[in-house]
Give the backbone structure.
Amino acid sequence: MAQITLIEAVTQALAWEMAHDPAVVVLGEDVGVNGGVFRATQGLQQKFGPERVIDTPLDETTIAGLTVGLAAQGMKPVAEAQFEGFIYPMMEHIACHAARMRTRTRGRLHVPAVYRAPWGGGIRAPEHHSEANEHLFTNIPGLRVVMPSSPARAYGLLLAAIRDPDPVMFFEPKRIYRQYKEEVPDDGEALPLDVCFVLRDGQDVTLVTWGAQVKETLEAADALAKEGIRAEVIDLATVKPLDFDTIAESVAKTHRCVIVHEAPATAGFGAEIAARLAEHSLYDLHAPVERVTGYDTHIPLFRLEMKYLPGAQRIVEAVRRTLAAG
């Protein structure tokens, strides 16, 4: 079995689903001839033709609206925004139409669409190419928000997203697109949406994270293990709807929680998790919930970029604080 990167897993999932479901089409800027800015769709137009892998104008608003129309009329479009920072012009169609269609038509129409976007910083790009804005979409009813953190999860979750009858925001952490490889069977097996993945068992503290930050969180767990601290690591994978039960079960065991995400702290999705823990798991907590996040500023240019992103040392320090608190 071949070992592949996360970006190759995305391509593999798209190719599988297009081969097995003629309703699936891919559209976006440069996704056809060039295979996308990160080559996520490389070779797909040659295999499936320009009517199913569609190079669009440089117009995110049109891409988003066309996706709604295609999906409402029986297709399964997978639309690409070249970078997550380019997705703002798409939000009107996503929020006002894609997310509302099932409710607006009382179930007569639905929008089985996927909006893909390379997400997050760490590649020395300008700020509009490096944003972590998943929290903006978690507040919109009718949307799923999914973020893989490994090649295997990218493959399985993207298959599930395409097969879902409602719109899915699928954010791909581009910092780890080619960072490492793992074996991914090309068998068409989807992973479940709406569930967390417990990547490491532990007894002393719960570390909750998603996307590219899974790597640093696992590194922090390794460092903590050398100090005798056993950290349980949870990858949300589906940010919304949140599988809170898995988090609550872990916190009931460890009694401490540190939440790690790349987005700015204020109103980041970590705040929602912390609020739910306060509402439902307060008596299980022996210390306040800690958050390790990006800062409340635009992501800086590359000289300071890695200082903005939460690193393993910041996570370790947060764990030490929560252990010292009670």
Q: What stands out?
A: The mean pLDDT is 96. The first helix runs from residue 6 to 20. The chain has two domains: 3-183, 197-324.
